[in-house]
Amino acid sequence: MVRRSLARYHSAYDRAANSLNKFDWLTNLFLRLSIGFMFFSGAVGKLGDLGKFNAMFEGLGIPGASVVAPAVAMVELVGGVALMLGLATRAVSLVLALDMVGALLTDIGPGLAEKYASVWSFLSNLLYSSEWLLTGLLLLLVCVGAGSASFDARIDQRLASSERAADSTTM
Question: In the prediction, which pLDDT does 20 show?
Fold first, then answer.
């Protein structure tokens, strides 16, 4: 009786999971649009008040802040647009994840370490930071790519089509 119930549950679960798999493109699109817009809008704000952003970098002791700060803002601006379009998603996601690691190491982590003496409080707040979450989501995009609703997918289709055409002419 229990075995039969489990078999029915498993069968229903498989049907539901297979139905949901048809929407995996939507998950990637949602992630790319959300994360891309976060970076794009943040970069617009940073570039809009570059003096303040430079001063923040100088306050963190980052060498060459007047060069590094605008470079970081431009990487985030261009990277945000590329993510929203699904263009070079894996490479852009890796670069932006490294950008977030930099923020965690230079700003977020040290600030939390000063504020929270206990390891538990420090880790609880570090792992709750948006930079930590963004790093994880960006690494997910590095692994899974942009999905079918992206320029990456269109480019892959065109390359595969031209490779097939080239192969058929050489035969």
Answer: 80
